Each structure stands twice: as structure tokens, then as C-alpha cells.
Amino acid sequence: MAMRAFSGCRLLASTAACALMSATVLAEDNNRTTPSLDTVTVTATKTEHLAIDSAESISVVTQEKIEESIPETVGDLLEDLPGVEMTGGPRGVAELPNIRGLGDNRIVIKVDGARKNFDAGHRGRLFVDPELLKQVDVVRGPSSTIHGSGALAGVVAMETKSADDLLGKDETYGYRMKQGFHTNSDAWLQNYSAYGRLGDSFDAIAMLSLKDSNDTALSDDYENRSLNGTSYSNRRLPNSGDNMVTGLFKTRFTGWEDQVLTASFSRYDNDDMSFTTPDSTFDSTTRDVSRRTREDTYILKYEYDDGQSEWLKPTVNLYHSDTEIDEIDPGTNDFEERDLYTVGIDAHNESLFSIGEETDMILTYGVETYRDRQEGRENGAPDLNFPDAVGLFSSAYLQAETNVGEDWTVTAGGRFEYYDMEAKSLGEEQSDTAFSPKFSVTYRPLDWISLHGLYAQSYRAPSMTELFVTGTHFFGNTFVANPDLKPEEGESFEFGTGLSFDDVWVEKDALRAKGTIFHTDYKNFIQQTVGSTTTTRDNVPDAHINGFEAEVEYVTEMPFIQVGYHQYRGKDETNNISLNDIPTDTLTVEFGSRVPSLDLKLGTRIEMADRQDRFGTENASAGFVVADIYASWKPGEDWLNGRLQGLRVDAGVDNVFDKYYQRHLSNLPEEGINYKLSASYSASF
Questions:
Q1: 361 contacts 403 by C-beta, under 8 angstroms
Q2: pLDDT band at 27 (very low <50, low <70, confident <90, very high)
Q3: Confidence of residue 9 (pLDDT cuts 50, 70, 90)
Q4: Homologous superfamily in CATH for domain 2-684
Q5: Which residues in 533-634 belong to E strands, given as ranges?
């Protein structure tokens, strides 16, 4: 099977080389796609930067990439990014991102600025339909100065669509319909949107998404394999299908001069037949459950910018999120409820100071506070695995970004945070403070190169579940709470460079490249220790992770290529052993060509992952090579005198060679070959 995959990759590479050469010769006068590294992002610093110019390591998933992917889950959008590996397997409700070898609640996840803090063993956190999203930013590395507790590994920030994103300058209303299908899980995807604006004072968008899928089909090779001693001859991963309904309603009021008030409500509602541990296979410690996952999010955001004031540019974001997971055991009718309620506010202002003729400083300062309240019930009684508890986080932050001429940018900042967590039923409480400083320098000796250096400290307070969990873990094994857990701390040094070239080989081409090396020391790393009769969590005094990651993009009016790579190593210094949760060395290559005369785009993605056996043969994972192909067609005015404008068709084949493979950080194999197709039509007036 491996030989088949590698042979196929050689064929695809040869075909791509021919396509690139011929496309260069046949290039027509059409606008090329902007490199993703040229996308504007505010996630890392709250100030606007191109991803390639930021001292932080950032990747951006654009709207075009979301459309091309025909994704079922947010994980489908993140898994090809350097430094990111998805864990939890093919079941969407179990998906979790891992950044630079750290996952779970060591990553801050936000949607339109609202924190998504749900944390329960074996369950996911990405309760968002990708069809609602406009852009996804991923920041790799410590980010507590801006994002507070939990940003030990990085940030995943998602932004939903607005009416302005779908309407032209002179258009007042419109609609969009989309249908999609995946053959692997027989997934039927639907989306319906309506949007409009009233003059310059008000706009709104309403979106509804539906999904219905069956169990995931594994590779043909799976028939000869087993998981935890269990083999499934029908190639289907049991209990991996689901039914999902999601919606978004967002309004923006701009009737006040220079002010914008945005209000939104979104709901994620997913029903599935799964296991008590959806990130693993069935064994003696698991059982079937009927699960419903629901998340409601309310957001109210105020912005002021008159374009003239140097002192006043405030943003206030108020949000409330309610996450509920209910499970029923159909055999015993046992009922389990796990709820997390989060309410928070983040308010900041930007002030611009002119220090000299060639020096200016952007001062960003603000406060944030949020409150988590979790409740767990098992057949009406308290669920000791998800203890009733409350956590309060309050912080103030300050960042000074100084631009000296056009060559230097120096950024210094810090965040002071206080937290208090309490489980009254257990009579336990923990509170502490933390300071998270950051300092970065960017130097541009020439127009086409920038050099970056960054120092940052970050921290993560123990979660309420980590501090207060008790009760049965599995038969014969019980949780022992450890309310004395210390917060995790990280100290990171990063160095990198960015390269930007235009009109390199042909007219209107662009070459972008960005690479980063880093070393991060961790203290009080929280780990779970499973003994023969008890399970508890404790702190590992010292550990470190270092590595390298890079992105390279070359785009023209027709051919394009994008390359991503990461290599990480981690060590538990206390016990002198390698960290097992470090992802494999991975190279991802995407290439293809646009055909402007046909309004067509063709592409191929190849992911090559090395073997990971640094933690010993028992926990080793095999390397793999997986290839996908895709095509997008957006007919312009030349088709049927413009009657097809507004139509878009996307098609693709994932895992073209039906490769059996399993990611190092997953307990389950990935899906087999998958043919997928989507068609959308939009009209605006």
C-alpha cells in the first residue's frame, strides 16, 4: 500500500510540473490570488498586520480556502496548517487541535472574540459549522499577553460572516443556497443564507446549516487490522455519524457616526450515537450513548473609529456562551448532563503617539474578565467527573508597538491576571495571580526581507475539572482530586524571517516565505497519571519543546504552489524522557493551476508524515503519505451571457489512494477515500 501511495505521488508531482510549465506559457491577463501570508490579521496583537509581517507565527485560513475544502468540520480546515495536528479521530464531536505538541485547554479558542472554554475528557471543543466562517487565524506559540490563561500553545480565532462580506458596494440584499455531499460517510450538507442592508445604517445576515451523515468508512486495508483487539469487517467506524443543525443571525447598526454596534446569536446542535469516549474505539471501559451537543452564543460588540482621533479607538466585546452535552445510555437509561456557562467582557482602546519625525507608537490597553460556571449531573445527582464549580478570571493588559522609521518595529507588553476557582460542594478553592510579559523586534533591512525575534511568557491555570474531579474513572479505577495543582508556565524564545518578492519570474507573480525556530521551557506541566486503582493529576517540574516551522507560497495568474513544514522535539526534563504528545515531522505540499479561460482552478494536496517513535516502540506511530485533489469552478459573464454568474461548483477527492493511516496523536484511523461535491448559488440586488 505504501508503494502504491508513493508511486501515485510521483505521478501527481510529474503532472503538476507539466501543468506549471504550460500554465506559465499560457498565462492570461487575470488577477492572481493574494497569498494567504498577505492576509490582514489582528489576532496576535489586536492591531492590524499582514501575517507575514507579524513577529508571531501565524497561519490564516481564508474564505476561498474554506470553500475549496468542502469541510464537514473545522478540523478539516486546520489539519493542513504547519504546526497543527488534529486529535480525537474522525468523529467531529471529539476533534481537538494540537499546536506545537500541546492541546486540550492549552489552546485558547474564540469565535468572534467569545471564548470557548468547554473542557471534558474525551470530548471536543470545536462546536462550529465551518460554513458560517469567513476566516480562521491560528497563532502558534505563547499568547497569554493578549489572550490570557490557556494561551500556552497558541490561539485558534474564528470569524463568522457578515452581510458586508457578501454584498457589493451598491447592493442592498441577496441570498445564497448551497448543497454538498461526501460519499465516505454519505454526508449531506446544506446551507441557506439571506442578507441585506438599509442604506448606511443597518445590515443583517441569517444563516442556517444542516448536516446528516452516517458512519465513517475506513480504508480497504482496515479489513486486515484491528483496534484494541476489535476488528470491524464492514470498514465502518462505529458510531461516527451525526445529525447537525447550526444557525447564525448577525446584525450591525452603523447609524451613529463613526460607530458600529454588532449583535449576533449562533446555535450549534448536534445529535449522534457515540461512545462515552468518542475519541477512541469500543472496549471494556466504554459503552454506547445517545449524545446531544448544543452550544448557544450571544455577542454584543461596540466599535468606534472616526479615522482622525489619535487617542480614541475603543472596542468592547460582551459575550455569553452556553455549552451543554447530554448523554443517555440506551441500555440502562442512565442520563448524564454536562453544562458550561461562560460570560465575559473584553474592552480595549488604541492610542497613537508621535514620538519623533520617524517614530510613532500604538498603545493598546484594556481589561478582560470572564466567569465560567460548570454543572454536572448523573441521573439527577451530582456528576463527580464534572464537578459543580465556578471560575473567575480578571486581567488588565498593556502593549506598546513602536515603529522606528520603516525598518524597525519594537513591541513590548504585559498582562496581569487574577483567577479564583471554587467547588463549594467539595469545600475546595484555588486562587492565584500571574504576569505574562512579551517583547518582540522586527527589522527590515531591505524591502524584501524581515527578521523577527520574540520573547514571551505564558501561563495556564488548572481547569476546574483538573482541580476538583473525583468519582469513577472506569471500572476498578477512581479519580483522586488534586486541588493543589500549580498553574502551568511557559517561557519562549523565537527567531524567524519573512521574505516577500513580487514579479520574480513572470509578471504579477508573488513569492512569500516565513520560517520560525523556537525553544520553550515549561514549568509545572500538568499530567494525568493512571494507576492500577486510581487516576490523579500532578505537576511535572520541568519540560521543554523546541522546533521549526515554515510556510512558502508562490502564486501567479495561473500556477501556484504552497509548502508547509514543521519539526518539533519535546522532553520531560524531570524524568529524562521524550514527550509523547509531540506531532510527527510533517511536510505538506499544495500545487495546481488556474485556467482563467474556463474560470477553473485545479489543485492537489500531499501530506507526508514521518514515523514517530521517540517515546518508545509501544507508543510509536507509522509514517504516511496522503494525497487529495480538488477543483473549483466559478463561471463568469462569458458563460451563457452571464446567466451562470453566482454559481460555484467545488469538487474533490480526499485520500485518493485509499491509504490506511493514523495520526500520532489519535487513537483512531482516519477516513478512507472520500469523493465530495458542492454547488452553491448566490444572487445580490
A1: yes
A2: very low
A3: very low
A4: TonB-dependent receptor, beta-barrel domain (2.40.170.20)
A5: 534-555, 559-572, 577-578, 586-595, 600-609, 624-633
